Amino acid sequence: MLVVRREDEVKAFPHAAGFVTALTGEKDFAGANLAIVRLFGPDLPHYHEARTEFYYIAEGLGTLVVGREVISVKPRTAVIVPPRTAHHLIPHSAVKLHVFSVPAWSEHDEHFIDPDHPMHGYSLFREKVELVNELVRRADLELPPGISGERLEEFTALRMKLVSDEGWDTMNVAELRELLVRKENA
Questions:
Q1: Do 97 and 77 touch, CB atoms closer than 8 A?
Q2: Which of 4, 37, 66, 122 has the fewest Cβ atoms nearer than 10 Å?
Q3: Could you read off the pLDDT of 3-59 as tens digits, one per residue?
């Protein structure tokens, strides 16, 4: 079966500290999938029991931690992450990466490492991300298909402000909603 998808025609969805645009998925071909991931903050440490991931950094700078290896990544860097290997990306700027997964991504194959363990220091970050995601869900905020580039970065920057600010409140959700309405009408 032939599958053709364009990034600007596929809806992005919030994931960890950024957005994922799944160009293909398990329903298209169970053997593999391709996604575009934009990160604006650190990903949570995780591993996949059965899946190998191929990362290709398209934009931005960061540090990729794979097992005990710490890798400085920049555009045109490729990294293969084997199954059962803990990994996470810490962006130093907005990062856009292409992730090719074999077999295809499945939520049942994504296992987060206990961020509450003192050596990880992710518990506060995870709690904030979960709260922001809940605020986004309650406000019925959805990214319209085709949102990309500067519009996506502006939305995500505001979303990440919710995560990083100590005093966020419902006004920030209103700001997110207003931003989306403004951008949809642009």
A1: no
A2: 4
A3: 899 998 998 888 777 889 999 988 888 799 999 999 888 888 888 999 999 999 999
Residue 60 belongs to some domain of the structure: yes
Confirm whether pTM is higher than 0.70: no
Q: What range defines the domain where residue 165 resides?
A: 7-184
CATH of the domain at 61: 2.60.120.10
The Cα 22–Cα 100 span in angstroms is 10
DSSP conformation letters of 86-138: -EEEEESS-EEEEEEEES---GGG-EE--TTSTTT--HHHHHHHHHHHHHHHH
Total domains in the fold of the chain:
1
If you search the block for the tokens 């419902």, which residue do you land on? 170
Give a yes or no: residue 167 inside a domain: yes
Contact between 20 and 13 (Cβ < 8 Å): yes
| Of the candidates 172, 166, 179, the residue with the CA atom closest to the CA atom of residue 134 | 172
- The residue behind tokens 């207003």 is 178
